[in-house]
Amino acid sequence: MAVDWTRLPLARDVTDRVAHRRTEPDLISRSWSDPATRVLLVHGSSLATTADGTALDLCRPAEVDDPGLVLFLGADDVGDLLAVVRDEADADRGWTGLRECGHLMGDRDSGLATTAVGLAAWHARHPRCSLCGEPTAPALGGWTRRCPADGSEHYPRTDPAVIMAVTDADDRILLAHGALWAERRFSTLAGYLEPGEAAEHAVIREVAEETSVQVVDPVYRGSQPWPFPASLMLAFTARAVTTEITVDVHEVTEARWFSRASLAAAVTAGEVVLPTRASVARALIEDWYGGPLEGGDAPR
Asked: Residue 50 — φ and ψ, nearest 5°?
């Protein structure tokens, strides 16, 4: 079964962000006092969810003590949707990491969760003005930060990255083990775009830098946000014109060519741990494979 590149796990945002409302005076306080408003709780990259992780455990504002940072995510036909960023995970709720639950949720919850995790990560990493160093404060419903000293406004950043399924003349796929990853984990190659670089050029450069394999014909397939903390993954396929591998050691410690049969056998034997099902890497691998690969998932 082919992957639907328009419906990647973390790219199914259906909530109306109603961005025009972000400039409304007292937006957060008025939304907070509305009994129709629902709140999702986020802590790091984890969210308050139902026990099985298939849905957000939304609550009402009155149920939240000490709200702290509140983010306006948008609205639906029921009412407003907010996120509250928690310094600690509330002990009386179930919590699930977005990597583990993003693909299990419905479209609305997956989109809300991805947005909340991304915005929360940006606020946590950018508490000060990049121009003068003074502490900044959230504004526009949490979609900007404003410096009270120089009046500058700061917006969330997104770092574009390419991620690619490289195949050779025998239709084998190239998978690699990252230097910082857990043992036995393999995935597709990926890397960030550099200033002044087109995404297609980044595909060719990154594969060569990490494995010495030369590729041509990069073809764009789709994209999804990856808010860990602020990436936009641009998925490509590419064709290898060389197959000899020399890893760079610093970023990639091992890379191997897999046929469909050898990958399935390695996954079944526990020799290879695959990327999470919420990732673009998993979609690229299973698109090449021709359907779901059972087993080999990273533990929760």
From this structure: -65, 165
